[in-house]
Write a structure and sequence with these properties.
About 25% of the residues lie in helices and about 30% in strands.
């Protein structure tokens, strides 16, 4: 799926167009917030692929997100020490690491629908 995924530049441009706010960027990780909330999510972009990472509390909605054409949920949790707004758990090391739910996108339309659905879920919470 990684070869079909849109790149980080296209994701960043789409998020700006949807008025998502950038809080910080550290190497391959950028923290964003939805336009009308303080709900944080992350863009993790490395040399292989770019993906958005959501808070693990949204696990009940993974199937709903994955049902959007062009959205692909990562099977395992995504771990990164700098996703500081997310909870921690023991992964492969001796200390706990922040983790979340990762998604990749085939195109910007899939990303737009994903963000709109995420916004709707957060507004209902």
């Amino acid at each position: 799926m990684a070869s079909l995924s849109i790149d980080s530049a296209a994701i960043e441009e789409t998020l700006r167009g949807l008025e998502c706010r950038t809080n910080f960027k550290i190497r391959t990780l950028t923290e964003y917030m939805l336009s009308h909330s303080k709900h944080a999510f992350y863009l993790l972009a490395d040399s292989r692929h770019s993906r958005l990472v959501l808070m693990p509390a949204l696990q009940p909605f993974v199937a709903d997100f994955a049902a959007i054409p062009g959205v692909h949920a990562q099977a395992d949790y995504c771990h990164h020490a700098e996703m500081t707004r997310f909870p921690k758990r023991l992964h492969t090391g001796r200390t706990e690491t922040h983790y979340g739910l990762a998604f990749e996108f085939d195109n910007t339309k899939a990303l737009e629908l994903f963000i709109l659905q995420l916004d709707g879920i957060i507004r209902r919470s």
